[in-house]
Amino acid sequence: MTTIRLQNTKTRKREDFVPIDPQNVRMYLCGPTVYDRAHLGNSRNVLLFDVLFRLLRHIYGADHVTYVRNFTDVDDKINARAAETGRPISDITEETVGWYHADMDALGAMRPTHEPRATQYIPQMIAMIEDLIAKGHAYAAEGHALFAVDSYADYGALSGRSVDDMIAGARVEVAPYKRNPMDFVLWKPSGEGVPGWDSPWGYGRPGWHIECSAMAHDLLGATFDIHGGGNDLQFPHHENEIAQSSCACPEGEFARYWIHNEMLQVEGKKMSKSLGNFFTIRDLLDQGIPGEVIRIVMLGTHYGKPMDWTAAKAAQATKTLKAWRKLIKGAEEVGPDQEVVDLLADDLNTAGALMRLHAMAKEIAANPQKDCHIEKAVFLSSARLLGLLTEELGGWDAATVDLSAFADKLGALRAQAMETKDFAAVDAMKSMLLGAGVEVRMSKTGVELEAGPAFDATKLEDV
Ligand SMILES: [Zn+2]
Asked: Has 372 been labeled as part of a binding site?
């Protein structure tokens, strides 16, 4: 059996992955707060965890992996959006969940096993907070419940910070009811017009961090295998999840392996609204960039490195995928190439696995006279382990114009030119087609035209 190795943030080492229960490998990814469209950067860990999910299913069996990703549907950003727009909160969260599903589906990300919503887990959160208070790790004050960071000696271990460093470096909300400025909110009071639930500390709503601890415990147990998110979540979110879960369930270990991905840039710059290079997944899809192209570009950089989205990469990827889809026509899945599996197992080296796919495709293309039946099948299966060349993501490459009328005309002009030895009309038509981004192949058997990556139908002249 292939052994997966993962760079574990918790130990700062690359470790062999040994599941607690190979019959049920369990992983958790912090999901979105649902008040707006997901931006491109949000897709990075979704795609990373999707490849990990596929790899684990390949190694341990499709029915032996449980993947949980939550929806944060109670949050001050959602409340603010509702106040701005005058719309009910449930309308906003429902609509955003729908958008999120549509966008991630378009990128070929499989749906997780469970997608719990915070508002469905309020009783579990209240129970966990009560337990933390009973154990002396939390306290109630002025309608709030707060986690006491001084009560947990390992606070800061994941991100490698001491509480004093955090106080010095972080923008800590100082509040009179906090014993230590780093103490964080488990529960807070809700005023009018803001969602709330009755609790032992009064009418209120949970803080953000407690939801992941409560949902992970309910769906995955006190100890599970892998937890992940963007590296911007390491502190404070993941640090707080660990503190809550470890103190509420000292018998458990919470997550054994922590995976954090680096951030996304656009054309070498940080993505930000002020720089005008901020865009959502939907923006790209609406520009006509296929989800499969976004996916392969995102997987082209190892998750541990900053990822740079560029238009040039997208154009190149479009070309690659068109060629690959042509290559696998009629091929059926067998099983993936072991080298691709090994590369993915090596800390999810998606970039290396794509290089291997390029080499495999090159080899097949270099032997057009050979049938390459097995090679194509292995290539297809390997690509699908990365969620590429799937049926669901297909179709976009064929959705080009019908160029047969142009091919017929060019064929007729050529036949004429063979007689007259005057090729001017043939050359003129060829340059018109090339100018419109059409790839022209003329052989003894006929004329073949195909829309290339720079195809522009408006540059085609009538025939
Ligand atoms: Zn979380």
From this structure: no
